[in-house]
Amino acid sequence: MAAARYDVEKGAWNGDGRHPPAPAPAPVQYPRREEEREREWVPWFVPVVVAANIALFAVAMYVNNCPAHAAGGSSRRGACVARGFLRRFSFQPLSENPLLGPSSATLQKLGALVWDKVVHEHQGWRLVTCIWLHAGVLHLLANMLSLVFIGLRLEQQFGYLRIGAIYIVSGVGGSVLSSLFIRNNISVGASGALFGLLGAMLSELFTNWTIYSNKAAALFTLLVVIAINLAIGILPHVDNFAHIGGFLTGFLLGFILLMRPHYGWMQRYVLPSDVKYTSKKFLVYQWVLLAVASILVILGVRGWDGDAFQRRERERSLPVVPLPQLRSNLEMELREVSISGA
């Protein structure tokens, strides 16, 4: 029986006649290069923006100094709000600013968007500075909460550079559209920049369509959020032109800056070996959307120049002649022509 036991390495069997168990195959390790993993960024741009907006609001209230500018701490429209507690930082009377903030004169001094100053005094820097100012505590609180809920997730996925560019450029885009259509009121706030992030979220959903598992639910939820925010712009004293301008700017920039590899490329190392996937990192439709958005952005930039506001002003200043008067003027001219011709 002992002679019947052969060396296992030579492929023989044991004395009991059974073959030895085959060794289990080692698991296949698919190498994955570190730079190809989807990086998750640590957000810092959004917290810095929130802190900057809060600090600038405090500066605005310090410059405002309601007690000093109102005789005896009261003005024609009422007393300063919370003067005994906040002192120099107290708010303007509620009849003047119901949002608990500074006066319009203070906001203009610090860089609010004023159509007349942008057009006639060539203060184009107000297109940028106005997105860092807020009309009151309620205005600031609403915008900053929205920025935290929207911006943090986007910055974690795409990084501070791309999200920062979309935020700033969308804010300027909202200011430009607001200046072209509103000239009787001042405009402040980060709403245009926030709507730019919403627009970028929508275009990111379209261009990275293959990544999302529940596409219909994601699209419906995002459209409902956008519709609600646009509906708020119908309310009095809300600048919906800044919302629309910021949204369109961010929507186009999202196709350009937020394009990610498609699902098959991202999962190629975990898919079974018999599953075929395309070797292209980006799909054709993604490049098409990027090209169309790039062309529209270039056309928008080239179509707008420093004289856009002057052209808009000349168009508004053209005299409007009523139709009956225009008709009578033409008839008189025709009679004079016929008499002179006779």
List the topology elements.
Blueprint: H1 45-64, H2 66-69, E1 74-75, E2 78-79, H3 83-86, H4 104-110, H5 115-120, H6 126-129, H7 137-158, H8 160-181, H9 191-207, H10 215-232, H11 240-257, H12 263-266, H13 284-303, H14 308-317, H15 323-341
Antiparallel strand pairs: 1-2
Helix pairs in contact: 1-4, 1-7, 7-8, 7-9, 8-9, 8-11, 9-10, 9-11, 11-13
Major sheet size, sense and barrel closure: 2 strands, antiparallel
Molecular shape: elongated
Q: Roughly what is the average pLDDT, rounded to an integer? A: 76
* DSSP helical segment count: 15
Q: SSE order in H/E notation? A: HHEEHHHHHHHHHHHHH
> How many whole angstroms does the radius of gyration measure?
32 Å
- The helix/strand class is mainly alpha
How far the N terminus sits from the C terminus, by CA atoms, comes to 142 Å
Low-confidence stretches: 1-12, 26-36, 316-321
Adjacency order of strands in the biggest sheet: 1-2
